[in-house]
Amino acid sequence: MFAFAVRRSLAAVVMLIVMSMVTFLLFIASATDPARIACGKNCTPAQIADVKHSLGYDKPIYAQYGLFVEGLVHERNFPDDPAIEKNAPQTIVHCSAPCFGYSHINTALVSTLIAQRLPVSVAIAIFAFVLWMVFGVLSGIVAALFRGRWPDKLLVGLALIGYSFPTFFIGLVLYQYVALKWQIVPVPEYISIFHDPIGFIRGGILPALTLAMIYIAGYVRITRAYMLEAMGEDYLRTARAKGLTERKVIFKHTLRAALTPITTIAGLDLGALLAGAAITETVFNFNGVGKLAVQSAVNGDLPVNVAIVLIAATFIIVANVLVDVLYAYIDPRVRYA
Amino acid sequence: MADPVTSTPNPGSAPTADPAGTTADGDLLLRVRGLKKHFPLKTQGLIRRMADPVKAVDGISFDLNAGETLGLVGESGCGKSTAGRTLLQLLEPTAGTITFEGRDITGVHGDDLRHLRSEMQMVFQDPYGSLNPRHTIGSIIGAPYMIAKTKMVKGDSIKGEVQSLMERVGLNPEHYNRYPHEFSGGQRQRIGIARAIALRPKLLVCDEPVSALDVSIQAQVVNLLEDLQAEYNMAYVFVAHDLSVVRHISDRVAVMYLGKIMELADRDVLYAAPMHPYTHALMSAVPVPDPRKETRRERILLIGDLPSPINPPSGCVFHTRCPKYREVLSENDKQRCVTEFPELELKAAGHFAACHFPEVRSDIAAAEGAGVVVEQQIATAIESVAVPDGTLGL
Amino acid sequence: MSEHRTEGTTVSELASNRPHHLGETFLQVEDLKVHFPTEDGIVRSVDGLSFDLAKGKTLGIVGESGSGKSVTSQAIMGLHRRTRAQVSGQILLDGEDLLTVSDARLRKLRGNDVAMIFQDPLSALHPYYTIGNQIVEAYQVHHDVSKSVARKRVVEMLDLVGIPNPARRIDQYPHEFSGGMRQRAMIAMALVNDPKLLIADEPTTALDVTVQAQILHLLTDLQQEFGSAIIIITHDLGVVAEVADDILVMYAGKSVERGDVDTVFYNPEHPYTWGLLSSMPRIDRDRQERLKPIRGNPPSLINPPKGCAFHPRCDFRKEVNDSTRCATEVPLFDAEQPHPVRCHIDPPRRREIFDTVIQPSL
Ligand SMILES: Nc1ncnc2c1ncn2[C@@H]1O[C@H](COP(=O)(O)OP(=O)(O)OP(=O)(O)O)[C@@H](O)[C@H]1O
Ligand SMILES: Nc1ncnc2c1ncn2[C@@H]1O[C@H](COP(=O)(O)OP(=O)(O)OP(=O)(O)O)[C@@H](O)[C@H]1O
Ligand code: SF4
Ligand SMILES: [Mg+2]
Ligand SMILES: [Mg+2]
Q1: Residues whose beta carbon lies within 6 Å of some atom of ligand 2
Q2: pLDDT digits 0-9 by tens, C75-107
Q3: Which of B215, B238, B252, B292 is the best residue to mutate to test the C interface, defined by the most C CB atoms within 10 Å of its own CB?
Q4: Ligand 1 atom having least distance to the Cα of B309
Q5: Which residues of chain C neighbour A256 with C-beta distances below 8 Å?
Q6: Which residues contact C354 (CB under 8 A, 6 or more apart)?
Q7: A18, A130: one domain
Q8: pLDDT for C222
Q9: ipTM over the 0.95 cut-off
């Protein structure tokens, strides 16, 4: 088991390294010239070349990648130019490891930018996760237990509706009506959960719900399907034949079988969600990583882009590893495969 | 592994292939020598490395004539299916050679392999799982024509061909456009057979084709297979664990244990006078549908489970469960079983066994009267078999 | 769990009417019907089945695939869901009707007095729990004991069914067991509460002959030790010949012949039983030139043939005095008889046909 976990983690590290290279290549090789954007509209070619040099974009790609990787473990200076360091040390930004780079557009370190926003995104994503697991999975179980009768039809119908509206539409409707018009909850704003838990919930419920909606809908259906599959298994007949109560048959034997695959999917979805909450954050104007990603993409803010993609990839890969390990723990058959 | 036939010089080891004229009894179609299929395994530890492989098939040799049926029996997991698949090149052999119509086909690729597929086909056990539920049976049975591209059959004529095939296997040709779920188990097995024989193969490997069917339907399918064989002179390798069915359909039977052939003989001989203790135990375990015989019958119960094909026992792989080893042999003899691997050898005319201490064939002993030196018997038997063509076990 | 639609008769009336020709009757099934309403119509899987079974005896149920054998056994266990199946008739276990008892009582009986072994031991065991966990659970449902006591009992049971090194094996998962060992574990689970009735639905079909021999041996041994009644369902006549005292032959949800094992094997009287015996290859006889399948296809259970359900496939209708009866009138099955046969042919004529036509060709 331990060996399994370690092996999976090592594989994940290799994957991250490859991801970082690919990302780097894709962005650096893209058509937008970061130096031009950083310099501004009215720059002469000479000025652009200057900026390019001071930002290090004139170096070959592998060297840039090398610097980037070095920065992850080592301090970097922006611009990394001994002449400037001597003449005007105050204009140099020190970036301590792990250094993801410097955003000239925001005139801030990428790590600072992200560190401000990550807690917002993570908190909302986890809030959403809790919502969808509770409502989605529970409704799925109920639907399966009442298969073919009205609770089933109702839940599956609602899920279908939830599924068919785009996220931004759900978000806008909730924002417009629940918050602005009926004022059931205050206008959404991010408050740290450690600071004021109630405030966090009241301020975060709408974005979390928006984020969770499509998942809730999906999970009703997935859970229902897995439950029904598990309910047809021969070993449930065995469980009944032992004389177990129906409650025990469902909550011990059926759920164990049905929830195992759901755990996997849920873990992966959470990873993906952490990686991309862009729409919701934009709609509710939350300063999370998702919004930052949208902004930096629009502005061509290269270092931020690279960092966000890497962080997203990290979330997804780490989620994958955790899920694999978790799955091996709950499904004994996997350990030997 | 030195095998019984190739170890002697053999002028007929590559018999002239004359596909048109191989109807006479005794035409060698398939020759298998020292065939092995090992599945690699990975270890569990921190660093994965190759561990000892699963020796699913571990050196089997036999010959098969055109129009002949070879039964393949043995316990679950002894490698019957793997042997069948490896023969057809559905799995790549680890070692050994397969000669088909005098041509070495071990490891053929590409067009050669595709051509070979039209000559050798397989019928699977599971009549439910092996048919794609979203294809009509017309397209399932017609698929081989499309894939093989060898016989020039086009459009409408495929349909005609398929329908006559359906009729031949006892399906209603009007059901051409129906889907597999609309058919019963026995009918689905007929669909599988129709698909397999579409290109008139010379060899059909049947992997437990009737195990999932009940007795009456099983009888229909067995009869169909026999009729088709008579009509097209196909050779069958018939894998099954029901020994009664195997006896009914086979000409010769090979008994496998842990990836090896333990005994290979003519059907009637094998059932009446098995020489290998394993065959003995296997035969005695078959329940007989006759209550009076059933209560009188003496049964040899094998103790324990089949050993792992990853670390098969030393010497004779059967010695850990062999009743003879446990109850009859002296310490000296036992030593031999534990250390020395018994080759599959000719012990009597057409009768191969892999055992150091085979049962004496009662029929031979009786024919010659008491006191016959069995060795002498075997010597004559070997002579009588060493015909120029050297066919194994005929 | 089950649908109860008792017909007029009460338990005591029926119980006192029955001749106990099998000694002390323990299980008595009366006019059992299990119907499944489906979109295509009502599937009459079991349609008026009656039989009984004494303590310490083994009943073999044989019949074509789809003839209702498994549905019958699940009805005895009360495993049909009320929402999907209509179950009627009576199933008396020691005089108590399993179809009318409360759910709580049924659960008490299930696994304790009546236990079941299923066909495919791998799918019948939960893949995520250890073997020990699953058997301990089965014991604790019916015995108020601590986990460690139950565990000790389970180790004993595993040892009894011949699993080597049970103290270690108990903590393994089903996929770590071989097929034969899984079936042994199933048997240990079924026997852990010393049931009075054991139902084995094709206990050896998924196993090969050597393991099958071990398992059948084990079952008969255990029966001798504990005196339980056993119902064994199979379509392998060899298995029945080996273990059963009585045989019930089913066709299209009905019983067509019942008798002790010698009678059914040596003097069968129903054309379907003849067909069954003729269609299998016999390892104990000279090899037949050709197998003789029963012609035609299995009947629909939604629109079963009128009259004798077997008549479209029967080769002996001309032997009936008025052969139109086969297609119009359901032959009677007098369960009181020692050897009841559901066929219109006169009994002496049936015996004659068997002796002169069927027997010689077997
Ligand atoms: N792809 C594979 N990888 C690893 N091991 C395999 C593979 N296929 C088969 N084996 C192993 O090889 C051995 C032989 O398997 P095979 O399926 O040939 O047996 P069999 O005689 O056909 O058994 P059965 O009667 O149950 O069908 C078994 O131990 C099996 O677990
Ligand atoms: N839940 C169900 N709904 C509808 N039909 C059913 C249901 N369960 C069983 N049946 C039908 O009842 C018939 C009898 O089934 P059963 O499983 O008892 O057959 P069997 O005699 O055990 O056959 P086999 O030998 O193949 O196991 C079959 O035709 C089956 O399709
Ligand atoms: S009743 Fe008629 S159709 Fe039915 S088995 Fe007897 S003879 Fe055949
Ligand atoms: Mg196989
Ligand atoms: Mg069944």
Answers
A1: C 36, 38, 43, 45, 63, 65-71, 84, 235, 301
A2: 999 988 887 899 999 999 998 999 999 989 999
A3: B215
A4: 29
A5: 126, 128-129
A6: C267, C268, C269, C274
A7: no
A8: 82
A9: no
